[in-house]
From TrEMBL:
<keyword id="KW-0511">Multifunctional enzyme</keyword>
<dbReference type="InterPro" id="IPR034291">
    <property type="entry name" value="TMP_synthase"/>
</dbReference>
<keyword id="KW-0418">Kinase</keyword>
<keyword id="KW-0150">Chloroplast</keyword>
<comment type="pathway">
    <text>Cofactor biosynthesis; thiamine diphosphate biosynthesis; thiamine phosphate from 4-amino-2-methyl-5-diphosphomethylpyrimidine and 4-methyl-5-(2-phosphoethyl)-thiazole: step 1/1.</text>
</comment>
<feature type="domain" description="Pyridoxamine kinase/Phosphomethylpyrimidine kinase">
    <location>
        <begin position="24"/>
        <end position="267"/>
    </location>
</feature>
<feature type="domain" description="Thiamine phosphate synthase/TenI">
    <location>
        <begin position="297"/>
        <end position="482"/>
    </location>
</feature>
<protein>
    <submittedName>
        <fullName>Thiamine biosynthetic bifunctional enzyme TH1, chloroplastic</fullName>
        <ecNumber>2.5.1.3</ecNumber>
        <ecNumber>2.7.1.49</ecNumber>
    </submittedName>
</protein>
<dbReference type="InterPro" id="IPR013785">
    <property type="entry name" value="Aldolase_TIM"/>
</dbReference>
<dbReference type="GO" id="GO:0008972">
    <property type="term" value="F:phosphomethylpyrimidine kinase activity"/>
</dbReference>
<dbReference type="GO" id="GO:0004789">
    <property type="term" value="F:thiamine-phosphate diphosphorylase activity"/>
</dbReference>
<dbReference type="GO" id="GO:0009228">
    <property type="term" value="P:thiamine biosynthetic process"/>
</dbReference>
<dbReference type="GO" id="GO:0046872">
    <property type="term" value="F:metal ion binding"/>
</dbReference>
<keyword id="KW-0934">Plastid</keyword>
<dbReference type="InterPro" id="IPR013749">
    <property type="entry name" value="PM/HMP-P_kinase-1"/>
</dbReference>
<dbReference type="GO" id="GO:0009229">
    <property type="term" value="P:thiamine diphosphate biosynthetic process"/>
</dbReference>
<dbReference type="GO" id="GO:0008902">
    <property type="term" value="F:hydroxymethylpyrimidine kinase activity"/>
</dbReference>
Length: 500
């Protein structure tokens, strides 16, 4: 195999975003925001600069648009040499630059095009003339995979139609979709009289309202650039469009919250810190935030069962992951916090040595203290939305659900998966209402999230659960079938062979 082929294969494995945008000398938006976002999301980012601005936290003091020939040279340099997966656009300040971009992209195929239509300033000034708008409508949007206008930009795209409500955002998303892009995200951060930051996502068939609490901070410069480049980064890593949008929404929320009191510059709108991982000490072993396939064999520990067999939590977890458990949840209701934390740290090392994620049941404080991969919460525990705010965008959050309504709320609140059950009667939870296979099926069909079935599942019935054949059912969660037995290793191996 030639060196050229080997290099091409290596390039294919590295997620790569090309940002085509303007330069922000203040470092908060534009090319600089895109570079920082992709870096924070562990994605390589190359750049094509369309304009150079002189700006700071007080505003824009100068703008120098680059000649379209030189923009074309930059595009060709990158696309002819590097394997770019996703192109993300920001400021496209002239009609000729829009045409150069669209013509170039027809020559170099990519996985996706993410368009952030930078058309209007924070103060409300229109930044592009009618000719550039026409270029967007005629040249760029028909080849766009997702466009991410805020309500002012959406209004410009639609000829000045005012957007004053979430209902108006739904209408706008549909009308913009009719202009050609395959997906539309109308951002409602500037929507008046709204307690939450509500974005409307439309994929051509379904509408999704993505909600997050508003963060009271001056440090919001570059949120639009960051959201779009985060979507691009997640698409480059292989995420679905909806998953990429949700991850970007979580990332923005966490970054704004982390940076709310940061002070850089003296102006009205400061930048925020994209590398919130410097404060939230995230685990470095997992390249991807969550893989639904991890739910295949979900092992949940039980302190009483471990005491019965005179073994530690760590011994039990080690046997489970050696036997093939694909994810582990520590559920230790009786342990003292200090003992729980020490055991969690030891279990985390064991799980990570096998590439298996470790979650903590309910105890967000313990999850934060040991830097676990996430938490699982019940309906009476800390809400998933608060858990997401506390843990940040990288961590895994699961929610116990018994109804389609609860499953839908878990999705709105930013959960990654739901635990559905009890499917069968169980002794591990008193007075636990069972939903049966029909209830499990109903929730799987209604859920927008991956589902793991739990409750009374073991060797005798795991197959009939997995053979339901419904979408979103990714695995089974087991307690007694593993930890209630003398040899956890053997039981896990047997169950893993059955479900896989």
């Amino acid at each position: 195999m030639s060196v050229r082929v080997l290099q091409a294969e290596a390039d294919m494995k590295i997620p790569h975003v090309l940002s085509v945008a303007g330069s922000d000398s203040g470092g908060g938006a534009g090319i600089q925001a895109d570079l920082k976002t992709c870096g924070a999301r562990r994605v390589y980012c190359s750049t094509v600069i369309t304009a150079v601005t002189a700006q700071n936290t007080a505003g824009v003091q100068g703008l120098n648009i680059l000649p379209e020939d030189f923009v074309a040279d930059q595009l060709h340099s990158v696309l002819s040499d590097m394997h770019v997966h996703v192109v993300k656009t920001g400021m496209l300040p002239s009609l000729n630059i829009v045409k150069v971009l669209s013509q170039t992209l027809r020559k170099f195929p990519i996985k996706a095009l993410v368009v952030d239509p930078v058309m209007i300033s924070t103060s409300g000034d229109v930044l592009v003339g009618p000719s550039v708008l026409a270029g967007f409508l005629e040249e760029l949007l028909p080849m766009t995979d997702i466009v991410t206008p805020n309500i002012k930009e959406a209004s410009v795209l639609l000829g000045g139609v005012p957007l004053k409500s979430v209902s108006d955002m739904h209408t706008a998303a549909k009308l913009i979709h009719d202009l050609g892009p395959r997906n539309v995200l109308v951002k409602g951060g500037d929507l008046p009289n709204s307690l939450d930051a509500i974005d409307v996502f439309f994929d051509g068939e379904d509408f999704y309202e993505l909600c997050s609490p508003r963060v009271n901070t001056r440090n919001s410069h570059g949120t639009g650039c960051t959201l779009a480049s985060c979507i691009a980064a997640e698409l480059a890593k292989g995420s679905s469009m909806l998953s990429a949008v949700k991850t970007a929404k979580h990332f923005i929320q966490a970054a704004l919250d982390y940076s709310r009191d940061m002070t850089i510059g003296n102006g009205a709108q400061g930048p925020f810190d994209h590398f919130l991982a410097l404060k939230i000490n995230q685990s470095s072993y997992r390249q991807n935030r969550f893989n639904p396939n991890d739910l295949l064999l979900y092992a949940v520990t039980d302190s009483a069962m471990n005491r019965k067999w005179d073994r530690s939590i760590a011994e039990a977890v080690k046997a489970a992951v050696e036997g093939g458990a694909t994810i582990v949840q520590i559920r230790e209701k009786d342990a003292e916090t200090r003992d729980f934390l020490e055991a969690a740290k030891e279990c985390l090392k064991i799980c990570h040595s096998y590439g298996v994620p470790l979650l903590i049941n309910d105890r967000i404080d313990v999850a934060l203290a040991c830097d676990a991969d996430g938490v699982h919460v019940g309906q009476s525990d800390v809400p998933a939305r608060l858990a997401r705010t506390l843990l940040g965008p990288e961590k895994i959050i699961g929610v116990s659900c018994k109804t389609p309504e609860q499953a839908h709320q878990a999705w709105i609140d930013g959960a990654d998966y739901i635990g559905c059950g009890g499917v069968y009667p169980t002794n591990t939870k008193a007075n636990n209402r069972t939903i049966g296979l029909e209830g499990l099926k109903e929730i799987c069909l209604a859920s927008k999230l991956p589902v793991v079935a739990i409750g009374g599942i073991g060797l005798s019935n795991a197959r009939e659960v997995m053979e339901l054949g419904v979408p979103n059912l990714n695995g089974v969660a087991v307690v007694s079938a593993l930890f209630g037995r003398e040899c956890i290793l053997t039981e896990t191996r047997n169950l893993h062979a059955l479900v896989s």
